[in-house]
């Protein structure tokens, strides 16, 4: 929804190069983001924290997200509805930064470190907690910027939601990797994707839902709990208990939405 007082811009016309003004602006930001991720990962590898595999995985994760954004902006997707503006916008730039940070964290999956026990590499563990916390805090910025700039859009909302979903899945995978909880916690990260997959079998699940404070709160609790579980001072038993409670809360939230849609 657009804030009052702001009129949506007309869909940008294609340039001589075949790209709309929106696509040109988005492409610039996507390329800058990719370069930033490459440099950041290369620095970590150069410092000996990770091997080259981290850079490869990070670029694959960020590249996949960038491709999905680019695909959504293609004229054939009806971007006049998805993002009816000529600019990518400050809110989407913040979400793109969040995607870059999540990609850097995701690149740690499968690396020799971090590993159990977390106390063996407390410096790296705390660095991950700080980076994940920064990523979570930025989630409170993009929505505010979208409303303030008058550039809110369906694309921005979906971009934000999918970044959150991927972030949760990445945190779940790291919690398992460092031995703070069993593989069952992956259910928290996979639940959103299972819901989308189920909607292909039962189309009524794809009906729009009204904005919900409960849904937003559960997402915040989920991310916060998983970050806490990655703290090196949190014993595995406590981490597993917190993760289990957050999983129950998330399951209940999805159950409420499914019941609402079924009616």
UniProtKB/TrEMBL annotation:
Protein name (database record): Phosphatidylglycerophosphate synthase
Keyword DNA-binding assigned: no
PROSITE patterns, per the entry: CDP_ALCOHOL_P_TRANSF
Keyword Chloroplast annotated: no
Keywords: Membrane, Transferase, Transmembrane, Transmembrane helix
Coiled coil, from the record: none
Segments passing through the bilayer: 30-50, 95-117, 123-141, 161-178, 240-258
């Amino acid at each position: 929804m657009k804030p009052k007082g702001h009129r949506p811009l007309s869909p940008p016309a294609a340039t001589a190069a075949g790209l709309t003004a929106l696509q040109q602006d988005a492409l610039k930001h996507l390329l800058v983001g990719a370069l930033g991720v490459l440099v950041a990962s290369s620095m970590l590898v150069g410092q000996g924290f990770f091997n080259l595999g981290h850079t490869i995985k990070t670029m694959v994760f960020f590249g996949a997200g960038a491709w999905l954004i680019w695909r959504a902006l293609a004229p054939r997707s009806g971007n006049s509805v998805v993002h009816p503006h000529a600019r990518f916008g400050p809110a989407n730039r913040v979400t793109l930064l969040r995607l870059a940070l999540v990609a850097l964290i995701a690149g740690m999956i499968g690396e020799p470190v971090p590993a159990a026990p977390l106390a063996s590499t407390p410096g790296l563990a705390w660095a991950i907690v700080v980076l994940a916390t920064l990523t979570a805090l930025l989630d409170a910025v993009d929505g505010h910027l979208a409303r303030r700039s008058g550039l809110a859009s369906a694309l921005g909302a979906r971009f934000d939601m999918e970044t959150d979903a991927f972030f949760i899945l990445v945190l779940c995978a790291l919690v398992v990797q460092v031995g703070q909880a069993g593989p069952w916690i992956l259910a928290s990260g996979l639940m959103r994707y299972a819901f989308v997959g189920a909607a292909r079998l039962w189309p009524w699940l794809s009906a729009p839902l009204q904005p919900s404070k409960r849904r937003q709160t559960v997402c915040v609790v989920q991310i916060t709990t998983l970050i806490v579980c990655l703290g090196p001072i949190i014993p595995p038993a406590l981490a597993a208990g917190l993760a289990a409670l957050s999983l129950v809360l998330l399951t209940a939230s999805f159950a409420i939405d499914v019941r609402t849609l079924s009616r």
